[in-house]
Amino acid sequence: MAKSQEHSPLDKPHSAAVRLGRWLPTGHWLRCYPREHLVGDVLAGFIVAVMLVPQGMAYALLAGLPPEVGLYASILPLLVYGLLGSSRTLAVGPVAIVSLLVATGITPLAEVGSAAYVQLAITLALLVGVIQALMGVVRLGFLVNFLSHPVLAGFTTAAALVIGFSQLKHLLGIGIPNLEFFELLPYAVTHLAETNWVTFALGGGGILILVYFKQVLGGQLRRWGIWPQWILPITKSAPLVIVVLGTVLVWSLQLHERFGVAIVGQVPDGLPPLTLPLMDMGVWRQLLPTAVVISFVGYMESIAVAKSLASKRRQKVNANQELLALGAANLGAMLTGGYPVTGGLSRSVVNFEAGANSGLASMITAVLIALTVIFLTPVFYFLPQASLAAIVIVAVAGLIDVKTFRHVWRYNKADAASFVVTFVAVLLVGVENGILLGVAAAMLLFIWRSSRPHVAVVGRLGSSEVYRNVLRHQVQCWPNVVAVRIDESLYFANSKFLEDTVLGLVADQPEVDHFVLIGTAVNFIDASALETLESLARQLKDAGVQLHLAAIKGPVMDRLRDIGFVAHLGEPYFHLTTHDAMKAIGVVKE
Amino acid sequence: MAKSQEHSPLDKPHSAAVRLGRWLPTGHWLRCYPREHLVGDVLAGFIVAVMLVPQGMAYALLAGLPPEVGLYASILPLLVYGLLGSSRTLAVGPVAIVSLLVATGITPLAEVGSAAYVQLAITLALLVGVIQALMGVVRLGFLVNFLSHPVLAGFTTAAALVIGFSQLKHLLGIGIPNLEFFELLPYAVTHLAETNWVTFALGGGGILILVYFKQVLGGQLRRWGIWPQWILPITKSAPLVIVVLGTVLVWSLQLHERFGVAIVGQVPDGLPPLTLPLMDMGVWRQLLPTAVVISFVGYMESIAVAKSLASKRRQKVNANQELLALGAANLGAMLTGGYPVTGGLSRSVVNFEAGANSGLASMITAVLIALTVIFLTPVFYFLPQASLAAIVIVAVAGLIDVKTFRHVWRYNKADAASFVVTFVAVLLVGVENGILLGVAAAMLLFIWRSSRPHVAVVGRLGSSEVYRNVLRHQVQCWPNVVAVRIDESLYFANSKFLEDTVLGLVADQPEVDHFVLIGTAVNFIDASALETLESLARQLKDAGVQLHLAAIKGPVMDRLRDIGFVAHLGEPYFHLTTHDAMKAIGVVKE
Questions:
Q1: Which residue in B446, B493, B538 is closest to A146 by CB distance?
Q2: What is the ipTM of this complex?
Q3: What SS3 class is residue B409?
Q4: Are residues A167 and A260 both part of a single domain?
Q5: DSSP category for residue A358
Q6: A166 and A315 share a domain?
Q7: Between A412, A487, A542, which is nearest B527 by CB?
Q8: Record: contact B527-A149, CB cut-off 8 A
Q9: Distance in Å, alpha carbon of B494 to nearest chain A alpha carbon
Q10: Which of A209, A488, B62, B506 sits in a 20 to 30 Å window from A225, CA-based?
């Protein structure tokens, strides 16, 4: 991968930046910032800010928080990530799924929208930050691999549905109580008559505009011969467009007073205050499960998009450095009245496509958002909540991942099953327990698979030293010998299978007096399987059959020798290869 | 195993018994009962009854039930098991660990000793019976293999400690409230002054007598030249001895009135009434977790002892038939005022050693216990509870399994870890959640292991077609080729490991332009690993390296072909053997 490596620390040092760089990840962009990167970074920073202002407020609302919290979470965290992150194009900030997890975790502990609720969100940012940073320091980044792709896809798809339906109340202007997923739709349908049609027109119109910008406008602009560099900024300004449009409509027609359209209302202006989390072990313990899930899911979403973008430009992303950077970004959110953040998929793609070359783009975004909270918050007073709901709904619709399910279904039913289990569990028992169930199901399915391994009775191929499956090849066998290859490590979950298989084969072939177990695919024998092997050897001996072990791998053999099993069965019954075993038994000569 | 098979159904048919036998397991003992078996069966049935009367009452007390429930659970269940069981020597009835699980599961739902409590125990027997019978019918016996030996040993050891300490209150005559394990000892110590010394003398004396009978008496009798057949009955009558002794002492000295020694009191006489469980879905749902754990643990204990005894006489035990028989026995317990039963370890060993040849021994035991509840219950009035506590304590002391821990510690640290996790979890979070945690830990450790598989960079051995680990053998390598064997199936938990390993090896060897991944130990590739392979192929290509796959197993190759990966990477880059790959790359000629 020499070709895709970062600048080496020996590349033209740049005085002060170098000294700072010592404390930052190796090969960081600050060391030697090339001027030609500036245009791309500024443009990307600007476009992402335009997306992030409405998204930040919308996701904060989704999390049950006041809209300004979403903006606060888009300032310091972005500066910190820009400085520390190993991805050059990841756009950090509030994202839909983390916002949903925040809402799920905090709602039972405080009233939505209350000061205590905000305090809990800040505390959650602390916990997530500490967990992610610690995982980075002790290099636990690999742990996220226990979240398999199908589980993550099933989780995301179900979470997108949960989020989408949670916005129904804003879209229809109906007061919907806190309901389970499957109770929500029936409730909404039975209360459809209460719909505030003006609100619905604003929200539904917003959705149409967003979809038009996303699906149609780009092609039109290209056909109309618009300068290509302008197409991305225009299409990605859709959230801004509906926010402006919604605000202007409400303000000019006084829709909030005349028709009771729900609006954002007073948003405090000025930079976020310095905030501190709750220092209460009891609260921490209550928030811990949520914090763990957010840490994993947030990191997983982040690293996946960071990696895929980096590989397009042959750059590298360092998993543990990413954890550190995300952790630090969350601690930044904690200090400035924010809530947990992570790298967002769509935002990062926009950042990348708009030409972001370094963390500077993130920093420019942060500065623009800071200017927004200083100067523009009075403008948001008349912003209808339905417009924000429309933004959330269109954003999460893109997360529904039917393609992965179809692919996985074709390839491997166990993977498909873990997708389905996660999907259904998230809808039935909630996002947090749902993903935990999904992870457990994926592991169980893996263990289930290895508990019924592939077994091949083998015979000699011609006069070679090669022994192959009797069902797939024309091979030579002997009535008094059974030779079997088990294609799996031997451990507790398949030790009974091993016993049944061996005893069954011996029972089927009454003339047998030698049984050869071939270990080419046995990477490991645990204590339960060892006990089974001991009992097998005894049972076979009782039935007049000698057990042989052939082609046991070095490390496995060392273990068996240490524990005394080699001496117990007898050294002469261990053979380097299957062929050696056959020679020792005497059925083949050379 | 032809030699150890049961009587074939064609062996001398015995009229009526044959007709009945059609409904019973193949080759059942009833078909042709040889007369010479009778003496052993009668003797064994008698000795087990002598053990079971006090044990049954003691375990019922441990379960928080009136003593007669333990006796009731020792009549019909034994008849049923004797008829249906595939083991000839298993002695079914109340056992310590199941009794503990019953207590743990029911105590939160009803007051100990109340009629509702007994009803719940009966309902639990229904659920356990149905679960076990269903598992037998749909052949889920293999499921218990997910309970590894170290987990079971850790569980048993911790449960023995919990049970032993739970008897402190009876042994000392102190009223101890329902406490966590770690609070119990401090509480008992601080309340030691309240000890009822007469009670303690009865209990402590009982323990001494039991230990003496168990450890010393057998040798003495042999030295004294006692007829060997008499030694077992005498040593195994210890529980009866202390029960008789305790009863006589209390009665003759009126210890219960003069010193407040707790006695068993009124035990209803006559055969158990016909009982029916609670038919309440809500209750069933509450009891279900406990019932599942009892079903598994009970079956596990049972099948282990049944198998080990059967193999000593070269008989066979059928796992699914055992589940059916145990399930039926539990349904029997449910109908006759009992509580969940299973095959007991020590009792079965005594049954076996006393010469039991068939289920007739169990039936004789059942008849003797029935006679006891009809005629002898008034005798139990003065039986001190401390004597029963002594029986429980000595019985569970034998379950503490340090040997397995030591063995497993030497052999495999992951197994030792799952022993320790289960042991600690049972003590900290309780028996039920403890064993579930242990099972989860064992699975996680297995997955953890396979997430960091053994990897060997290989080279050519001399001028052979054999490629071996460069670290273990003198082999030939080429600067532009890396060939690697990964000794594990590729799946979500190790897909990142795979990626890091491959990219790391390529980065270390800048001249490389062919990477050969050898699949001899890859039994399976899941969707996550497939995605990783696709991304690896792309990343390697970007770096100017061609990925080759060699020696992929047939079933795995079929999958890769179906999903289009073979076409994606290119058919020419798949090779039957490592040697073929090297020939295709051109570094070897023939």
A1: B493
A2: 0.76
A3: helix
A4: yes
A5: S
A6: yes
A7: A412
A8: yes
A9: 7
A10: A209
In chain B, residues with a C-beta closer than 8 Å to the C-beta of A553 are 487
The reply to whether B409 and B460 lie within a common domain is no
B321-376 per-position pLDDT tens digit: 899 999 999 999 999 999 999 998 888 988 988 888 888 999 999 999 999 999 98
3 state DSSP class of A334:
helix
In angstroms, what CA-CA distances link A160 with A338, A402, A431, A457, A580? Answer: 23, 12, 10, 49, 59
Q: With an 8 Å Cβ cutoff, are A487 and B523 in contact?
A: yes
Residue A435 lies in a domain: no
Nearest to A539 among B150, B311, B563 (CB): B311
Range of the domain at A467: 455-585
Give dist(CA A126, CA A100) in Å, integer.
17
Name the residue with tokens 């076409």: B567
Span A509-527, pLDDT tens digits: 888 999 999 988 888 899 8
Taking contacts as CB-CB distances below 8 angstroms, the residues of chain B near A543 are 1-4, 314
Q: What is the pLDDT of residues B71-112, one digit of tens each?
A: 999 999 999 999 999 888 999 999 999 999 999 999 999 998
Q: Which of B3, B142, B442 sits opposite A496 (nearest CB)?
A: B142
Chain A contact set for B503 (CB, 8 A): 1
Whether residues A149 and B492 touch (CB distance < 8 A) is answered with yes
In a domain, A40, yes or no: yes
Cα-Cα-Cα-Cα torsion B372, B374, B380, B385, nearest 10 degrees, comes to 70
A11 and A28 Cβ atoms separated by less than 8 Å: no
State pLDDT tens for residues B508-553: 888 899 999 998 888 889 988 998 899 899 889 988 899 999 989 8
**Chain A residue nearest residue B497, CA to CA:** A142
Q: Is residue B407 located within the same domain as residue B485? A: no
Task: Give the CATH number of the domain where residue A561 resides.
Answer: 3.30.750.24
pTM as predicted: 0.76
Query: In the block, which residue shows the tokens 């804003």?
Result: A170
Please tell me the total count of domains within chain B.
2
Are A186 and A325 members of one domain?
yes
Q: Please answer yes or no on whether A442 and B497 come within 8 Å at the CB atom.
A: no
Residue pairs between chains A and B whose CB atoms are closer than 8 Å: 177
| B524 and B577 together in one domain | yes
Q: What sections of B412-467 are H helices per DSSP?
A: 413-429, 431-450
Q: Are residues A412 and A523 in the same domain?
A: no
Q: Residue B2: which of A146, A411, A510 has the nearest Cβ? A: A510
Instruction: Give dist(CA B265, CA B385) in Å, integer.
Output: 10
Pairwise CB contact (< 8 Å): A148 & B527: yes
Pair (B78, B148) in one structural domain: yes
Residue B448 C-alpha, separation from nearest chain A C-alpha, in angstroms: 9
B20 within some domain: no
What backbone phi and psi angles, to 5 degrees, belong to A343?
-75, 125
